[in-house]
Amino acid sequence: MSNLLEVRNLVKRFESGGGFLGAPKQVVRAVNDVSFCLGRGQSLGLVGESGCGKSTVARTLLRLIEPDEGRILFDGQDIRLIEGSQLRALRRRIQIVFQDPYASLNPRRTVRQALTEPLVVHKLGNATEISAKVENAIDEVGLPHSALERFPHEFSGGQRQRIGIARALVLDPEIIVADEPVSALDVSVQAQILQLLERLKRDRGLSFVFVSHDLGVVRHFCDTVCVMYLGRIIEQGPTNQVLDNPRHPYSRVLRDSSPVPDPAARIHLSKISGEIPAPTNLPSGCTFHPRCTRVKANCMSQVPPLARMSETRVVACFNPVVDDASDYPGVSHRAAGV
Questions:
Q1: Residue 51: CB partners within 8 Å, gap ≥ 6?
Q2: What is the pTM of this model?
Q3: Alpha helices, DSSP H only, in the chain?
Q4: Is it the case that residue 326 has pLDDT exceeding 70?
Q5: Closest CA to 208 of 22, 38, 49
Q6: Quick count: other Cβ atoms within 10 Å of Cβ 263?
Q7: What is the end-to-end Cα distance of the chain in Å, rounded?
Q8: How far is CA 181 from the centre of its chain?
Q9: N or C: which end of the chain has fewer CB within 10 A?
Q10: If you average pLDDT over every residue of the chain, what do you get?
Q11: What would the mean pLDDT of 65-78 be, rounded to a whole number?
């Protein structure tokens, strides 16, 4: 299967400080040498703690944030090298669904106006054709046509997220970047939205870049997963393999710290100490080494590259975990729903 999206050595830095008071400038390495591929009709999850850079990666894919280095190849075309009408045409093929559906909708515009605007901007049909596309999109996300004449404040959070998804669908994209699309919703509503996204992926052949901190959601929806820590991908592979048997010590901690819905389940948690380092003052070598229980001397001075541990798994660790079950016996996270 050919790759629809390829991200190679992506880097994004932010500067803080400075100004007229003369404070020294500091550099935040939000994204640091990130690479991954996304196949057609596939879904890839970006997971990690808050501040690890996953949402920044998502926004650079649409150039809502301009990357500093690296390449973003969409269907063989480097997104960073195009401008103007070419970039506008490409954005029709990549759409985003935001975390907060209320903040992403204009409160002064009806749903019809919100869904019509991208079609008018891209000049995709006359008034009759645009109206038909808007109505088809609202049908597809499970809302009645009467919703088109209402305003965002008249809907629940789950309904607003359906509107946000419909707005992305009207342009017939090939990739949807979903940035925490269900984290602001109740659990029952989360399930409904995930089922909707799953159906859209199947029926339309959509590809997804899915940003989330909920590993249960990622297991349900994503084919592959990238675990991020302080701007880097530290483990990547098929979702079930990574979550069932994480090879990087941080991936294990992330997995074990996820809530388990079974009250009878007994999970043996991995040990972790210390605070996340400041992004303006990253430790030398492996950035996880100050908190790692498996640290060795070379971890403190050398940055571990992503090394292939199997045909489908890569891990950035000098001392990866080989046998998950023997080191940390306990309930199966697959059975427990994580």
A1: 230, 276, 279
A2: 0.88
A3: 54-61, 84-91, 111-121, 127-140, 157-169, 187-204, 215-221, 239-244, 249-256, 324-327, 333-336
A4: no
A5: 38
A6: 5
A7: 28
A8: 9
A9: N
A10: 87
A11: 93
